[in-house]
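Request: Could I get any protein with tokenized structure?
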Amino acid sequence: MTDTVRGPERAPELPDPAAARPFQVDLRGVVDLLGRHLYSGPRVYLRELVQNARDAVRARADLEPDRRRDPAWEVRIHPADGPGGVLRVVDDGAGLTTAEVGDLLATVGRSSKRDLLDLPREGLLGRFGIGLLSCFMVTDRIVVRSRSVRGDAPVEWVGSADGTFSVRELTGDEAARVPVGTEVRLAARPDDVALLDHDGVLGLARTYARFLDVPVRVARPDGTWETVTQEPVFAATGERREALAEQVRAFGRDLVSAEPFDAIELSVPATGTRGTAYVLPFAPPPGARQASVVHLGGMLLDDRWDGLLPDWAFFVRAVVDTTGLRPTASREALVEDDALELTRAELGAAVRRWVLELGLRRPGRLAEFVAVHERSLKGLVVHDDELASFVLRWLRLETSVGVLTVDELVSRYPHVRYTETVDEFRQVAALAAPDRPVVNGGYVHDADVVRRLPDVFEAVTIARATVEDALDALDVPPLDDRATVARLEDRAGTVLDTVGCDVAVRRFDPSDVPALYLAGRDALRAVDRGAARQVAPSLWAGILGKASEAAPGGAPAGPARPRLCLNWSSPLVRTLAATDDDAVLARTAQLLYVQALLAGHRPLRPDDRALLTGALTDLVQLSAAR
């Protein structure tokens, strides 16, 4: 069977315009959709009203440029006076004509804030034409009265939550009482009275409209007014920022509830973004992301948005105001586009420059910063190439020659040796030569940080240092002493076999350290299993015994057994090798074993404590007998 060859597809025929019908919009359903999925909650109703009022004032400034700076143009909010009261939001903006009211307020998604090409006008916050609907989350009836600056008759629009509306022109005394501008009236539902009364409105106005460029005032119950708007000091630049330096710091104290470690100026002229990044004086909780406060033209979008800075900038809390970034439909976040990506990169670069300049000009201060945030910084540089490129060199690592910054470490010792655990470090560090130090990689992320060094620093190599390698690198006693050494190893090994420990004799410095307890990862794991088996219930003891296949003392047989390394350079060890008194040798070997355990920060097992007690008792008895 073969396919039939078809000709080119034709576009479907257009329907008869006379048969076309408009969509039916369920207003209650739309309001429910806004409240549940677009806006964060009914609190945003005031933000939308103030935002529209502010944009109306800006629009009037464009229409009357000679009065652009008229100080009388403002937004006034009259809270509802208890249950049954009415909230009024009044502005001195451009107002609306009868035609605009009927066309714009009753058409979902239509906005007046567009130019002749149907593009959003610059400087206006609201762009989606759905903000007024948010009021239906707190009321069942919206009344809008407006007089246009163009001279048309004032108009009243009344919308109901059932999806109906009415429009009428005002005349006579009623019209005379309506000045240029717009007034919106809301009567709260019984459950939402707290959002429209004085305390609720004042709190919302301070939250959302605090930094608007148009004055916003809230009426008090006693008839006076409270202005909630103020200068956004965090966004000041140049000489103005220098003059407001103390206010900028004070704003940071309120923001982070502590004295900021520092304040970093942020500025991205390409997107009209300005602000401050406050360096936290404390380490944030593990896994915490940066949370920025974002304003659009002074109106709050979000006070904990995590998309403004790069993920690695967890140690700052930024607060910015922007005029060039686009908000989402809810105006509670920013659209992820090229402008936001550019802004994020520029803000990250500003934080990065701060770290670099701190290292060049105030290294002591940088050390304080790293000390506060070091653990989190180490965790991030492991996975973030950008952060690692400029932060890694300032991180500190514990080494056998002291605590060093990464920069000091790689400049002095380009071949870096490190251990995977703290136990290994304690053992290997005791044997490491000063010119070949070892890094303690046992703390969280430290081994991962060391493994990143070759990616950031050229000519740097790394190698893992193990207990076995350290033991193999030690010098063996001279050939002339081999017989005496072998006899000492055999006699002491027999004594310590009861605790599962072998004996080896080597030469190392310093000579006043007679013995070291050396155990690799496998040996330590087996010893720990043996210790757990001694205190575990019978069932678990049997399981652990099978797992370890332990020799006497709970340690495994074969190469995984720990070793007591006796120092042939120590006079005490040489004296011990020369004694023929088996009791003295046994008790001394046992005491050296316990001493080495304690020096290596190893816990004593029940067998170890019994061995120590027996050795001390015998030595006391031997001394008393003499």
